[in-house]
Amino acid sequence: MTRHYTKFPLALGRGNRYHIGMFGLKQNEGEARARLRAFWRGESLGGRPALLATARNPAFTPEPWRGPALTRKQQDFDPEWQAWSQCKGMRSRTYFAEAMPYTLLEIGGLLTILATLAGGDYEYEGSAWILPWKDVLDKPVPEFDPDCGTVRQMEECFRRLAEADGGDGVITPPVYLDALTTLSMFLNQDGLALALMDRPDDVKRWTRDATSLLVACNKHFTRFLGGLGHSGGTTWLGLYSEGGTEAVQCDFSVMLSPEMFDEFVMPDTRRFSACYGDAIWHLDGVAQMRFIEQIASLPNMRAIQWTHIGHGKDPIADMPHFKRIRELGLSLLVLDPGSVDNAVRIARELGPDGLAMRLPPFEREEDALAAIERITVR
User: Fold this and answer.
1) Residue 220 phi/psi, 5° resolution?
2) Are 233 and 173 in contact (CB under 8 A)?
3) Do the beta carbons of residue 220 and residue 144 sit within 8 Å?
4) Per the structure, how many domains does the chain have?
5) What is the pLDDT of residues 66-99, one digit of tens each?
6) C-alpha angle with apex 8: 2 to 10, nearest 5 degrees?
7) Stated pTM of the model
8) Domain range enclosing 129
């Protein structure tokens, strides 16, 4: 049963003028969709890359949380908290260029859904951590059960979120951690490294069955959200795809050789990336560039999400990697260029085709618009 502590209005904090198109908080939505389609095709429109730019919404005044005190783990599956927290965050910004207003379920730091469905557990210590499960390889992975408690709780949260969203933005489907990285958290990295040597068939069986669980869960919630009037999605990256997207990943793969990547990662990621119209790979550090040709061969793999920039590194130094990604026919999302100046340099050096960048959040609308103009390649 849904718990309504203080049921805030559907138009909470609306108070701005951006009500055009499908998403109530998005201006120039038609143009943004066209530019995003071009990005996923490896192209661009009008001489500039796709840009995710937001500014503080001065017309929005958030309502305080009026429900009971909750632990972080209780917040994860509380429909009222999820609706209040997500809508507050979405409505606190205005959305420019290709940035789309969106919400998602913030469960376990976006890391724990598979672990929970598989029978494991997690806790918070600063961030979310999947608890060790030393004999996990001796346990069968359950099949997806739409009637299990976790799925029903997520459905309840999504229903309340859709009600509170009121059409202001898209609700994106659940975000998942991949099977092999989840297993590395159950066993810890050393334990999984040993299991790859001593029990490779058991590792492959577990990740195969866990990926089947992910695929079934994704199909279920894609249909479920479609029934609530939401299609497509942004995953946690904020980059919208009308055909649906997810940050396909395997963070544990930095421990593997290309040969082991082929053996232990590719079979499962092939199946998972095929679930999305526009899959994007979450590149967990430059070390994963050694797998870039294998990643490029995945079904529906359209783009690479790059995170290396933004830590004191000159973005032009990464340009050889950027160009290699584009040579393989993959688009590129630079999640954090670090500054508008860096974004300008990247756009001019690489060109606008198949390039997207998420700009640092702006305080004022005029600053966001000026940045977009600067990054346009003449």
Assistant:
1) -60, -50
2) yes
3) yes
4) 2
5) 999 999 999 999 999 999 999 999 999 999 999 9
6) 95
7) 0.92
8) 61-91+101-233
